[in-house]
Amino acid sequence: MAKGSQFDVIVIGAGFGGSACAGLLAKRGLKVALIEKNAKAGGKAMAFSKNGFTSTPWVVITAPIIENSFEKVLNELGMGDRVELVTPDPSGGAIFRNGKGKYVPMPDMPADNAVMDPNIIFDWLEIPEAEREAALLALTEITLMSPEDIDKQDNISFAEFLAKYNLPKAAYGYLVGSIHDACFVAPVDAVAASEGIQVLQSIFLRSGGLFAKGGIGRVAETFAQAVVENGGKYVTRAKVEKILVSDGKVTGVATNKGTFNAPIVVSNAGIQPTVLKLVGEEHFDRSFVTYVKDLVPSQGLPGVRYFLNKKVIEQPFGTIFSDDSYWTLERFNKAACGEMPEDIAVLYEVPSNYDENAAPDGKQIVLVSVWGPADGMSTAKDMKPWWDKCDEIMFKVFPDMPKHIERREPYSSKNVSVLTRDKVLPNQGGECIGLGQLVGQGGGQKPSVKAPIQGLFFVGCDAGGYGVGTQQATDSGINVANVVQRYHLMHTAMT
């Protein structure tokens, strides 16, 4: 791109937040440049194809299904027919390790999205009838809590909120180890209760387990294509080296493909890399820099890709958990120091069970993830205990897997960092989601989408959205597009 190219808005990064924001702004008439360092859009949920297999690089399970943020954006863009979203039957996907050490699949879900009798769940979890009232009360109050009451839960952890119910151990393990931990990738005693309640409520009322044929990254690719189709510029393999600032205002970005100029820059690169690297500490007050450095990311989600020469697993996705597999701050810190628990929760996704083109005929790709360190410089030695847990637990649950593995590909938080987020602080860069949705930085206390530099905004999971992973990022994209559009119109008309 020639030096001096002028736009209304530059968006850095074509993850779900950046691509949604850029696509919406272009559709609404702004001249937009979307700049992505990789070959395609999608960020951490980018779709890839290799040796006849097509999927995301690792487990990506999103929620809700009903009134999801993907369709909101696709519909406004007039591109709802460009992506085939699918909602595979989750029956049997959640697998509970009971007190006898037996792995028991969740009972089949009722047809037509009918509400499952909670007693079926309680029977599966082997909860005595005398202990079920507390679990029913918790489920009911989470499901029916008003937005106003949810907002009041910012300052306590989800663990503190749940403690008042004195839940049966298996019910707690199901809510936290199977659902909460997969949604937040942050310990239950750190996640803000407001975030936990809101997300579980959306899953209870609007279901979960939304995917796309060709990989969920196809959604972000479509958002990015909207920029081009509405007169903007979408540049791939362009790494932003610096956000340009003059007299307290952004003026554009410098990349390996030239300079792009605009009075507004929206960064999907993460708040910490944006402030500490792309802009530079010298352009901010010391108090803001300290605040940014103090923000805590989610945990990492390392794991293994298994390429099988035979279909072994029937379920499309799920979690493997017990009443003692959920993570707490103390438990994770011990694991990171070498004291790995015997039982940890495992997430798995089998794209070829909901997308007939995800694997060659008769073969299967299985994506498996567990929690792990978020350090973007993690080594294979650091990751080996976590990868070994993937093998250990998956092979116990699916004993035919080992003899049908054609190829095994471990992946680490370093792979996540290389693909999506620059490491600028210790134990950061390879986080699964972005900033953790934690007490003090979640709910109403999330970072502002507006930076203390004129014309600079943040988008993605770090600011401006609610929900689970890619849908949280897309929700941020919607909200930040609204903020930026208003900012653009005000400054065009009144300055």
Explain the overall architecture.
It is a single chain. The longest helix is centred in the C-terminal third of the chain and has 26 residues, at 469-494. Strand 4 and strand 5 form a beta hairpin. With 495 residues, the chain is α/β, with parallel strands linked by helices. It has helices at 16-27, 69-77, 118-124, 132-144, 147-151, 158-163, 169-184, 193-206, 217-229, 271-279, 286-294, 329-336, 380-397, 413-419, 469-494; strands at residues 5-6, 9-12, 32-35, 48-50, 53-55, 85-86, 95-97, 103-105, 211-212, 233-235, 240-246, 249-255, 258-261, 265-267, 303-308, 317-322, 346-349, 364-369, 405-411, 456-458. Helix content is 35%, strand content 17%. The relative contact order is 0.20. It folds into three domains: 5-45 and 66-84 and 214-297 and 433-494, FAD/NAD(P)-binding domain (3-Layer(bba) Sandwich); 105-206, Guanine Nucleotide Dissociation Inhibitor, domain 1 (Orthogonal Bundle), CATH 1.10.405; 299-418. The protein is built from 15 helices and 20 strands. The model has no long low-confidence stretch (mean pLDDT 94). The two termini are 29 Å apart.
Question: Into how many domains do the coordinates divide?
Answer: 3
**Using only CA atoms, what is the Rg?**
22 Å
Number of strands: 20
Class from helix and strand fractions: alpha/beta
Strands, helices and their partners?
Elements: E1 5-6, E2 9-12, H1 16-27, E3 32-35, E4 48-50, E5 53-55, H2 69-77, E6 85-86, E7 95-97, E8 103-105, H3 118-124, H4 132-144, H5 147-151, H6 158-163, H7 169-184, H8 193-206, E9 211-212, H9 217-229, E10 233-235, E11 240-246, E12 249-255, E13 258-261, E14 265-267, H10 271-279, H11 286-294, E15 303-308, E16 317-322, H12 329-336, E17 346-349, E18 364-369, H13 380-397, E19 405-411, H14 413-419, E20 456-458, H15 469-494
Helix pairs in contact: 1-9, 1-15, 2-9
